[in-house]
Each structure stands twice: as structure tokens, then as C-alpha cells.
Design goal:
The protein has two helices and 17 strands. The protein has 283 residues and is mainly beta.
Length: 283
């Protein structure tokens, strides 16, 4: 893990920690924004704390050092889980697949506990921000929870050189994020002054604890029918008819994370049902 540390600034260069209140239907001016605010955990309106803003006298100062994050502070990362595999073969048929279930924990709060602001990654704005929520969870300490993924595939030999096969999977939904460009009018009430970047500036706030809210699970079924033709010598020809996404699922792969009128609208969905005919020639 790589991090960028701004050596030109320290904690004395920043304001004390402050909070903002997440959007809620009650403080939104349009019906669409009220609808989007209601999609936040608990319907929004909760405090997000652990935020900082550089003092105006130090705004824009930078002397960045890119280094391994572990050189700046402690990082704890654990992966625990279980994987179960199945492989059954009988005459003319085969079934394989299994279950994968794991819990991923990442705690990089130690990286933000030093004397200089940091960004986890190369470049970008450095900060002391470790957004804290009402349940004391923090953006720098994430845990996915145990979320099972299942996948099975099978095949069966039919008469006259035909073979049918299918793949069924049921997978975890994507993590849903929420970022808000909080206007100066909201921030200044808690900060006690305008943002260092000016009265028209905004403060980026993580509204949703990472890896805590997920979209719907994916269920997808794909099928294939093959015809094998033996040619003279060792040559073989296979003709395949394939049907992807049999149920024509419109499962959401990714959601729009920025709070606004498009918040949590799908930004990418599963490809629709597709039928394909192809072949394979071996010699």
C-alpha cells in the first residue's frame, strides 16, 4: 500500500476536528434530492465527524513524500474465510463448483495518526480526515463481513454427439459508496469560519462507511449446447450454441457514489441476454 505524506504541513496547520450533518429529506430543497437523501443509512441526517480543514495561512503548501504506507503508520489487514469445493463425476455427467465466504478487514487509521496529513495512494489531497459515524465506525477501519459467493457448473452428454452444460452463480453485490461535496454554508457552521479554499469551496465528506452497504446479489445462469463432429484422422469440429444471462437480469454492477440527483443510480449494469453461435476446429 502506497501513501503520500505532506511534510509541509502538520497538525498545528489544521483546525480542530469538526462535524457536519449528512443530508436528510428535511433539509433538501427538491423532491428528487429528498428521495436521494432518504437512501442514505437510516434516512440520513446523522453526524459525520473526524473532519479537518487546513488553516487559511497554510492553504496550498505542499512538500509531498510518496512512500510505503507502513513507513508512516501501522496498517492491519486480515483475511479470514472458508472455501468449499465440489467435483462430482458420473458416467456422462459432471458437476463442479463451491462456496467461497470470507471477511476482509483493513485498518489503516495508524497512517492518519501521525503529525503530517496523508493520502492513501499516489498524489491527491492529503488530510487528517478519518470520518467517524454515530456507531464509532471510521472510514479508515473497514470490514466486509462474511458474504458468501456460490458458483456451480455442470455438463451432461447427450446422444448423437451432443453435450449440454450450464453455469449458475450467486455472488455478492457491489459495495455502495457515498461522497458529498458539502458546501461552505454547511461546513462553516461547525468549523467556525469559511473553508480555507474560500466561501465558494466545498468539503468532500464520506457519507457511507466503506464496505458497510452493498447492492443486490447477482444470480446469473448461462447455458451451452454443443455438437461434436469427428472428421477424418484426428480432426474434430465442435459447433456451440451459447446463451448468456438466460434470465435477462439487469443486475447493477456499479452505482453513482456522488450525492446529488443521480446518487445511487446505476452507472453500469449486467449485459442483457445474449445468444451466440460459434465453432471450434481441432486438428
Amino acid at each position: 500500500m502506497i501513501a503520500t505524506e505532506n511534510l509541509a504541513l502538520n497538525r498545528a496547520s489544521f483546525s480542530p476536528s469538526f462535524c457536519v450533518t449528512a443530508p436528510s429529506p428535511a433539509n433538501q430543497t427538491t423532491a428528487e434530492l429528498q428521495k436521494r437523501a432518504a437512501m442514505l443509512p437510516g434516512g440520513g441526517g446523522y453526524p459525520v465527524c473526524g473532519l479537518y480543514d487546513v488553516l487559511p495561512a497554510f492553504n496550498g503548501l505542499a512538500n509531498n513524500l510518496v512512500t510505503a504506507a507502513k513507513n508512516i503508520g501501522d496498517i492491519k489487514q486480515t483475511n479470514t474465510g472458508v472455501t468449499l469445493d465440489l467435483d462430482v463425476r458420473v458416467k456422462g455427467a459432471r458437476l463442479s463448483g463451491g462456496l467461497d465466504m470470507r471477511n476482509d478487514k483493513v485498518d489503516n487509521c495508524g497512517v492518519f495518526a501521525g503529525d503530517h496529513p496523508v493520502n492513501v495512494g499516489i498524489g491527491g489531497a492529503t488530510t487528517f480526515d478519518t470520518a467517524t459515524y454515530a456507531d464509532r465506525s471510521r472510514t479508515c477501519n473497514t470490514e466486509t463481513g462474511y458474504r458468501p459467493d456460490l458458483k456451480f457448473s455442470g455438463s451432461y452428454e447427450l446422444p448423437f454427439g451432443f453435450q449440454t452444460s450450464a453455469t449458475l452463480q450467486n455472488a455478492s453485490g457491489p459495495a455502495i459508496a457515498g461522497t458529498w461535496a458539502a458546501p461552505n454554508s454547511v461546513v462553516s457552521a461547525s468549523l467556525g469560519r469559511n473553508l480555507a479554499a474560500g466561501a465558494t469551496a466545498t468539503k468532500t465528506v464520506n457519507l457511507i462507511e466503506p464496505q458497510s452497504v452493498f447492492g443486490e446479489r447477482l444470480t446469473q445462469l448461462d447455458m451451452r449446447l454443443s455438437k461434436r463432429i469427428n472428421l477424418p484422422g484426428t480432426a474434430r469440429l465442435a459447433i456451440n450454441a451459447e446463451l448468456y444471462n438466460l434470465a435477462n437480469s439487469n443486475w447493477i454492477i456499479a452505482y453513482t457514489p456522488t450525492f446529488g440527483t443521480s446518487f445511487q443510480r446505476p452507472s453500469q449494469v449486467l449485459s442483457p441476454r445474449m445468444f451466440k453461435i460459434g465453432g471450434q476446429f481441432d486438428f
